[in-house]
Amino acid sequence: MAWSRKDYYLKNRDRILAYNREWRRKNYNKARSRERVYRDEVIRLWNEYLTEKLGDPVCQICGRILTWMGYEQDKTDSVHFDHRHGPGKIIGDRPNNWIKSRKPTPDNIVIFEDEDFGILCLNCNICLPTNNRKDWVMKVLQYLEESEE
Questions:
Q1: Domain of 77?
Q2: Residue 7 CA: distances (Å) to CA of 14, 18, 128
Q3: Does residue 9 belong to any structural domain of this protein?
Q4: Does some domain include residue 14?
C-alpha cells in the first residue's frame, strides 16, 4: 500500500494539531516581527523608487499633497493607487498589498508600470466609482447644468 499525506494526517491529526498550536504559541510574535521587518524594507525600497521616478505624489483629481506608503502617516494623506482601466491582470484589485509583498526588482517594476495606476487621495478614491466612470461623470455634469438653470 502506498503512503499518502492524507492518510498520515488522518492517523496523526491530534498530534499534528497539538504541535501546530504549541509552535504558534512560542513563535507567533517572532514570525510576525520578521514579516514586519521585511515589509518595512520592501516599502522603503518602493518609496525610494517611486520618489525617484515620479517625485512627490499629488492627487491627480484634487491636487492634494500626499505621501508614499508607510505606517507612520495618516491614511488620508497616503497614496491610493487607482486602476484606471479596471482591475489589473497581474496585480489584481489591491495594488498596495502587491507592492508590500514584493521588492522592486526590474520584473516587478515593469509589471507595476504596465498597470498604469492613477494616484489619488482617500477622498477622491472613495468618491470615484469603480465601473462606468465616464457615465458617472457625465451624469454629474448633467446634474450640475440642470441645477444652475
A1: 34-148
A2: 13, 18, 52
A3: no
A4: no
What nine digits make up the cell of 1?
Answer: 500500500
| 19 found inside a domain | no
DSSP character string of 56-114: S-B-TTT--B-B-S-SSS-GGGB-EEEEBTBS-SSSTT-HHHHHHTS---HHHHHHHHH
Domains of the chain: total? 1
DSSP state of 115: T
Least Cα distance to 110 among 49, 65, 32, 66 occurs for 49
Per-block mean pLDDT, blocks of 10 residues, the chain (149 long): 84 94 88 85 89 88 83 72 73 81 90 85 83 83 82
Which pTM was predicted? 0.68
